[in-house]
Amino acid sequence: MKNILAINLNKSLNKFDVVLDKVKYRQVIYDGTDHLMLGSSKYKYSTKQLVLSDQSMKILSSTGEFSNEELIKVFDEIMYIVNKNFSLYDTRGFRDKLNNARENFIKLPNKTLFEKGKLKQHSKLEILKQILIGLHANAGRVDLKDIGVNNFGAMVTSGVLLSPDATIVYQSPTGLFERKVKLSDL
Q1: Mean pLDDT over residues 15-19, rounded?
Q2: Which of 2, 17, 26, 126 is most buried, with most CB under 10 Å away?
């Protein structure tokens, strides 16, 4: 594995190889199925977009009322896509935490609960929207305390490690032009 700081450190820390002299902030990298962007030497975030069905989008964008079953179905659709395409969320166990939070999600009320003017518990719809913020292709993170998942989306590690097959993606500001370079070719 290569450390994204462009150094391959071994145990003695006496030897290292400079693989890349500069790695830009928000550098796009493809590493297997992970598509990520660098926030720092320890912070990464996804560049994948979550695409949902028209029915789920209708529920998420509406202010109307929906049945318990419809809201659970949206949660399940999100989890199906996350489990299939978002392996980057294995960082800090976020994918497992979301999967394990299903029962807590089911127990949530369909309407936000207030007690004496203070928020008591978020609704299912609000939690779904917060999950989407945490899954969005940016550095967004949210606390999903109502379902037992804290700091969701904060992919901070002790160092961003990449496989030799990782690809650095250089893009023009408009996104019209791009050049890809494999780490193993450097």
Answers
A1: 65
A2: 2
Closest CA to 153 of 165, 166, 137, 168: 137
With a CB cutoff of 8 Å and minimum separation 6, the contacts of 81 are 50, 51, 52
pLDDT at 103: 95
pTM of the model: 0.80
Question: Which tokens go with 80?
Answer: 């199906």
Number of neighbouring beta carbons within 10 Å of residue 121:
16
Q: How far is the C-alpha of 2 from the C-alpha of 162, rounded, in Å?
A: 5
Convert 59-93 to b/e letters by CB count within 10 Å (16 or more is b).
bbeeeeebeeebbbbbbebbbebbeebbbbbebee
Cβ 163 vs Cβ 1: under 8 Å: yes
Angle CA 15–18–20, to nearest 5: 160
Encoding tokens for residue 60? 């998420």
- Rounded Cα–Cα distance for residues 66 and 18 (Å): 55
144 three-state secondary structure:
strand
